[in-house]
Amino acid sequence: MEHDEVKRVSRELEEILERTQAKTYREISMDQIEEIPEENMKKIMTKEKNTENLPDEPLDEFPYDPEDRNEEEVMQAGLEHAAAKEQPEDAGMPSSSRKKSADYRYRVATMVRPSDGLVAAFLVPVLIMIVIFAQRRIFPFGDESFLRTDMYHQYAPFFSEFQHKLKHGGSLLYSWDIGMGVNFAALYAYYLASPFNWLLILCPKSLVIEFMTYSIVFKIGLSGLSFAYYLRKHGQTQDFGIAFFGIFYALSGYMAAYSWNIMWLDCIILFPLIVLGIERLVKEKKGTLYCITLGLSILSNYYISIMICLFLVLYFAALLILEGKKSMKDWLINIGQFSVYSLVAGGLAAVVLLPEIFALQMTASGDFNFPQTLTSYFSIFDMLARHIGNVKVEIGLEHWPNIYCGVAVLMFFLLYLVCSRIPVREKAVYCSLLMIFFASFSVNALNFIWHGFHYPNSLPCRQSFIYIFLILVMCYRAYMHLHEIRWKHIAAAFWGSVCFVILAEKLVTQEHFHFSVYYVAILFLALYGGILYLYKNKKASLNAVVLLALAVVSVEAAVNTTVTSVTTTSRSAYIKDNKAVEKLMGEMPADTFYRVEKVTRKTKNDGAWMNFPSVSLFSSTANEALTDFFKSVGCEGNTNAYSITGSTPLVDMLFSVRYGLYSEAHPDDELLEFIDQEQDTYLYRRKYTLPVGFLIPKDLEENWQRDFGSPVTVQNDLCQVVGAPEVLEKVDAEIVESTARFTPDKTGEYFAYVSNRKVEKVTMSTGEKSKSFTNVNRGYILELGRCFNGEEVVLSSDNKDETLSVDVYYFDNSALEQVYEKLNQYPFEVTSWRDTSLEGTVNADKAGMLFTTIPYEKGWTVYVDGIKEESYKMMDTFLSVEIPEGSHTVRFEYEPEGLRLGGLITGGCILFLIVTALGGYVWRKRDVLKAPRREEKEDGGENDPVQEDQEETDGTEDNIEEQEI
Q1: What stretch of H or E contains 751?
Q2: Are residues 652 and 613 in the same domain?
């Protein structure tokens, strides 16, 4: 009889496998397990002896979650199913219809296979983004581009410089094309470290923008795939529903706000895998996945990885709580493994991370100012309201988190709380984690900690993707138990979420919320409620329910992304003068060192975009000392940028700016020599340009007063120190409130300096010409250009409530010539130069300091006549070295500080992982080889009690050998 029952169980299992198109029992869902009668399930779960007729899959591979689907719970599900069959909800229907309806609840979707969940989680976000791009006419669908904020000003130029280095064999350690010369290893670590970016070597120069744009699309798809994969492994399920949650993770409010921030996206992709890895570490004591994925995350972007690491500490503690009672030994093993594998993960990225750490110490971000008082930015209710879709994303200086991930979250979170099948301990732990994030979004000190112990300069709540991950995981847990949740609870959750939206319309006053967003949210909630009604009441086939749900999820995500994301700029305008600049660069000599500036520029990083040695820079790795020096001489500078804007011919001469690219002709400028023109771009050579290095008296630094007075005073003081006339002569101007007027008494170049920092914009007009200056409050000198004798010039401020405190100056070209002759007596003549080295000669009649306009870093090593000499940080900014009297060869070589140490650490950590993996393999192999012997011993002991007695009474070697045989 038992044998017949086992055969029946086997047939039922085989039928389920066939209907589900599953290959193993692990792929069978909870619903299908419930089809098996209670008594047969009991035989399976208790592993009856006569199981030889069951399929070959081991019984311990059954698809029940060790936490959720233990034997008792599975049996309970079977009993509930049997009761439901006895008292069907559609008892009033005809018997044939009732039978058909009952089948809907357990019918397997044949059109949508379980494996399609991963495919949909990747493809749907990708297709949505491509459709939006086509609608916005983004290239190749039109002439627009997805260049937004920093992607426009930083990422595109840096990607172009990286590609240029890859294709032309340049060094990844240093670049002269950015900001006077920068540590490219640090810039790479901050902006370019994604392994995907190495594919740039296959990309034409003309398609760098498209490489970035469609990399974003691809990474958005990978984000959905990664999260869906995590849900599949975490929940040990083959359910197609992972696709719904993967789509919302990929097209969340965080992605709508920050998807253009391409350097963060690898971390968003890797994060679900990191969490899966730490779960395996705690539950199975396997740390390889955790270590490798976290290491890749830190390598790809250390900044977002800081937030991930902070969360991992919290989640590790949460997992220990969720695991319940453990021995002290297990706790210590878990803590030890977590600590070791976390350190090794950091070590894997050390070759990139250590140079970045040293470089950041030279930036404005190197300062540390912990908040002294606690403040809260907004209420929890206002934060929760941002779960409503189509709300304008926040990327400015306000602190609002972008946490939208589907309005269905409002319903499913309530279902998560009321689901009796989800342990109370789990609810408490996950809700506690959510509360920590709510506090982190709102409380200034926590916000400071989460962002690497700094306040973010715009782009708030950069850790909110972790919150989105948590809330979606919680909602998925509720989704997995939908068949066990009563309809009245689902209805209550629906009306509760609708009431929340209505209440938000009444209470939320943020300008981000257009009145229509509330109605759209209620509409989608109604659609989700209807889908759940169809599912619970068997009103449609599972195929129809799944496809309808996929359609609604896709439409909602697409609508939100369309409304709140994907702004565009003109692609043709961005690349308009590329070919002209490229051709004119061919007119410049390549045998010596000089710098070039594009006067009418798109960004401060135009040198990186077009690959020529430049002065300006906009980057989070900007050298703070260099920024301060730029500001002291009247050039524009702020926390993470400095530029040639505001320079005079004296500053251009000091910075070795030999060539200028202009968008208009300058036929009458005595200091410029016309070289060539291409379309609307003009190339000029400056008459006076100092080399990258020149000998100065040792006391010049001490005598030059750079910290007192205006930038005009600083420049004139330098002239006096070297024994030359002042280059900037003050001109009388009449100031009436917000307007200043002056009439030049001679034709030439004029400049102005506004000392009132409340003035932000100034407009100059003379004759029929006008010119505007913005960000005047940054304190840079205004280049008024060529003004003519007797022609009145008017300067006016946009702030009519403030007096325009301005001084006007005429630039004396003859004085500049004298300064040039004084400083160029002992030039450093460059004989060869590469990305990481510079070599030349200097002939000194007397000892002095070889001053260079190379930004000082400890990575520079200086050799004089082949002998290593100590370098100096002159004027707190520039690399210098003492030179004795006579003719000398000087060589500068660069290697980023921390590179070698980081390489050694990374190599050691890779070796550790290899040894660990090999050791684990050998250990498992040994266990496999020992297992048959143990089984033989056990079988022999059970089947031959006579031999056992014989062994006890006779311990001779012959008897032992006989027993083993």
Answers
A1: strand 748-754
A2: yes
Q: Distance between CA 556 and CA 435 in Å, rounded?
A: 27
**Do 584 and 676 sit in the same domain of this protein?**
yes
Nearest to 278 by CA among 249, 321, 307, 319: 319
- Are the C-beta atoms of 476 and 242 separated by less than 8 Å? yes
787-835 tens-digit pLDDT: 999 999 999 998 888 889 999 999 999 999 999 999 999 999 999 999 9
Which of 170, 249, 265, 179 minimizes the C-alpha distance to 217?
265
Tell me the pTM: 0.85
Instruction: Give domain status of residue 8, yes or no.
Output: yes
Domain residues for 392? 368-539
Q: 3-state DSSP call for residue 630?
A: helix
Residue where one domain finishes, among candidates 87, 102, 135: 87
Same domain, yes or no, for 285 and 372? no
Residues 375 and 507 in one domain: yes
Provide the pLDDT for residue 367.
Answer: 67
Check residue 949 and give its pLDDT.
Answer: 43
Residues 378, 498 share a domain: yes
Quick one: residue 520, left, alpha or beta (phi over 0 = left, psi -120 to 50 = alpha)? alpha
Q: State the total domains in the chain.
A: 4
**How many whole angstroms separate alpha carbon 57 and alpha carbon 59?**
6
Question: Which segment, 616-620, 636-640, 796-800, is predicted with the most confidence on average?
Answer: 616-620
What confidence score (pLDDT) does residue 7 get?
54
Cα gap 363→386, rounded to integer Å = 34
Distances (CA, A) of 161 to 171, 187, 736: 11, 11, 48
Stretch 87-101: mean pLDDT = 35
Based on the fold, state whether residues 289 and 387 are members of the same structural domain.
no
Secondary structure (3-state) at 87: coil
Please list the alpha-helical segments (H only) found in 285-407. Answer: 288-300, 302-323, 328-348, 350-360, 380-384
Burial 380-412 (b: 16+ CB within 10 A, else e): eebbbbbbbbbbbbbbeeebbbbbbbbbbbbbb
Neighbours of 680 (CB within 10 A): 13
